[in-house]
Amino acid sequence: MAFSVDAFDLPPSPVQQLTLSTDLEKTGVTLWVKRDDLLRFPQAPELCGNKVRKLKYNLQAAARSGKETLLTFGGAYSNHIAAVAAAGFLFGFKTIGIIRGEPAGPLNPVLQLARERGMELHYLDRTTYRRRNESGFQNELINRFGDVYLLPEGGTNELAVQGAAELVGETEQLLGWNPDHWLLAAGTGGTAAGIAAGLNGAARLTAVAVVSDPAIPDAIRDAAGGDEKTGNWSVNFDYTFGGYAKKTPELTAFIQEFQQNYGIPIEPIYTGKAFFAVFDLIKNGYFSPGSRILVVHTGGV
Q1: Rounded distance between C-alpha atoms, residue 198 and residue 267, angstroms
Q2: Is 183 strand, coil or helix?
Q3: DSSP per residue over 229-285, as a string?
Q4: Which of 127, 155, 183 is where one domain is finished?
Q5: Kindly report the CA angle at 138 between 112 and 3, in degrees rounded to 5?
C-alpha cells in the first residue's frame, strides 16, 4: 500500500561538528556538517538527502493535480533518477526516466535500482537530450507518454527551491546560531538556490559545482537574486575533477581518508567533491579566521 505524500514530514537531520587537524585548526575556523544523508525513508533508502527536500512539494503538487505518472531526466549515475523511482515506489506513482546517452551493456547500480523500483527507462542521444527543457520537446513527450507530471533534470524548479529553503531555518534552530558560511555540492543548483534564498544576515554560500555547467549560477540567481558580485552566494568550478561522475586518484584517496577519520560516508560524484573543496579552501585561507562553516551533506546513492 502506498504512503501518503504527507509522509514527507520527517524528523530534522542532525548537525555534527568535525574535529580539524592541527594545521587546519590554526586557521581559526570551525567546521560543521548538516547530515542530510541521514534524512531518508527506510523503506527506500535512495530517497534521501536533498532529493527528499526537492521532491516534497512536487509530489504533493502531482497528487493534487491528479497525475499518476512522474517523468524526469538524468544521467546514468543520477541520484535524482534513483530518488524519483523510489518516490514512485513509495507513494504510488508510475515513473519514467529519460536517460542521457545510449544504453551500454548491463545497467549500472543506479539504473538497476531505479528499474527495481519500477521505473521505465528510455534513452536519448546527447544531442536530443539537450532539448529536454524546450516546451515543444516536452509536449512531444506528453503526447507519447500521456498526462505526466514533468520533473526537470535534478528536480530543480520553484517547488524544489521552496523545499530546499526549509533547510536553513531547520539548521539554525538546531544550532541556536547562524553559520557564517555554507557550502554544498551543486549539480543543477536547485538546493543551492533554496539555501541562498533562505540565508539570513551576512551569511554566504559557496556552491561547489560538480560539472562545468553555466546553468548552475543561473538557477541560483533566479531564486536568490543578485549575482556573484552582489548576492550572498558564489559558484566554484575548481573542483569538478574533469566533469560529472569523473574522479582522480587524489579525490579517491581523499574520500578514503575522510571516511576513515570521520566515519561519514561520501561518494565521488557529489559529496566527495564538496568535502574535498571545503578542506582545500580552509587550507588556502579562503575563509576568514573565526568563521563557522557549515557543509550540507546532500546524501547520495
Answers
A1: 27
A2: strand
A3: TTSSEEEE-TT-TTSTT---HHHHHHHHHHHHHH-----TTTHHHHHHHHHHHHHTT
A4: 155
A5: 50
Gap between the Cα atoms of 81 and 62, Å rounded: 17
Short-list 65, 143, 125, 59, CA closest to 95: 59
Does residue 278 share a domain with residue 198? yes
Residues 188 and 282 in one domain: yes
DSSP state for residue 138 in the 8-state scheme: H
pLDDT for position 1: 46
User: Both 169 and 253 in a single domain?
Assistant: yes
What are the residue ranges in the chain where pLDDT is below 70? Answer: 1, 301
- Rounded CA separation 210/207 (Å): 9
In the chain, the number of structural domains is: 2
Show the domain range for 28.
Answer: 5-42+161-297
Q: Which of 244, 240, 223, 224 is nearest to 232 (CA)?
A: 224
End-of-domain residue from the set 155, 186, 216: 155
Contact criterion met (CB below 8 Å) for 231 and 221? yes
pLDDT number for residue 127 = 96
